Amino acid sequence: MRRNAHTLFNPGCVGASVLELRHRHRLRRKEIRKFADDLLSALGVKTFEESDAVDLGDTQRFQVILFQNEAVALVLDGAAFLTVKGLLRWRPQRRFVSVDEGAIKFICNGADVMGPGISGTDIAIAPGDMVWVRDLKHLKPLAVGKAMVSGAVMASKAPGKAVKNIHYVGDELWGLASG
Predict the structure, then answer these.
(1) pLDDT in tens, 109-123
(2) Model's pTM, two decimal places?
(3) Is residue 164 within 8 Å of 146, Cβ to Cβ?
(4) Domain 7-89, what fold?
(5) Domains of the chain: which residue ranges?
(6) What are phi and psi of 39, to 5 degrees?
(7) Taking Cα atoms as reference points, which of 91, 95, 96 lies closest to residue 46?
(8) How far apart, in whole angstroms, are the C-alpha atoms of residue 128 and residue 177?
């Protein structure tokens, strides 16, 4: 398999998928402002400025926002949300779901977050919101997903799926970069 700056192959996984970045283009100031506003509204963090060089590219699964040649956000249903690398860069304090140590290895292998593994959450989360998953000890981001239940239900550790995992540390999006 040939590797280039626009393709990522994760050799550590059997049958790992290839994520290709296609149709990359520079965003206009108005588009940058819209995505930056999405991130500020959802996560409470100020990310890039209108004058920054920000690109948008398509992959097989979703669109990604590239800033300083790093996939820092993904676009789902027209709204931006930070990737794990974006979360590491800007450190938001909203829309988090904390999980205990026993859940970490499963989440980092793509498993959905189950209610009993949740140790804390942002109570303001509503079903359908994009959320980020962090470990309880170091508060480091592990994954990004879609809330299946409210933050209050998550806090009660109700059985069942609480967060659908969309992107996690070590997946094909984690290492996507463009030179």
Answers:
(1) 999 999 999 999 999
(2) 0.87
(3) yes
(4) Nuclear Transport Factor 2; Chain: A, (3.10.450)
(5) 7-89, 92-168
(6) -70, -40
(7) 91
(8) 28
